[in-house]
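Bug #77: duplicate submission created two jobs. Keeping one. Sequence:
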Amino acid sequence: MRFARCRELFDEKFERVTKARILIIGVGGVGSYALDCLYRSGVGHITIVDYDSYETSNLNRQIGSDNAIGKCKVSTLSKLYPGIETIKLRVDTEWVANFDFDAYDLVIDACDSRAVKVELALKCWRKLLMSMGSAKRIDASKVQSASIWKSHGDPFARKIRNELKKRRFERNFTVVFSPETPYCKGSGSFAAVTGTFGLFLCSEAIKRVVQ
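Kept job's structure:
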């Protein structure tokens, strides 16, 4: 039976997992691993949002990129994970402002845009799980989750906090981050870390659903 081990783990609460409705914004090196984990855990309703197509530089860390260079990410992933819903759109602040998040129990933000992240926090912080910077790091053991206000050692997270303070936002939501000192300059990335970010987001989502 496909989800026998999950049923054994969650017992009667597994039904909550099957009925959960989760939106993933961005299915790159972080979001694709979150998708894989949620799908294998039995989440019954997953929607992914992304506009990009696979590039050669994605091969080192993004699920679905093998043999798919030039192909649409959401279309490719819908074949790998039958039953998921897809939205092929470029996510910007206007999209966040106009999108109806009420249909979802949780929103996983794995996009790269600081402006989008701030708008997501303002609009749906109660159901939001957000990825901070996963690039430039090599130590997966340093990855952790906490309130946005308790995240530390991550320059990207600091910028998000500063933007939220300017908007007089004082609410709490969970972020996944790493305080590891950047190992390189530029945008170097490593699947062991980006994947761990995605798995942390999945774990936080499942905990919300079953607790």
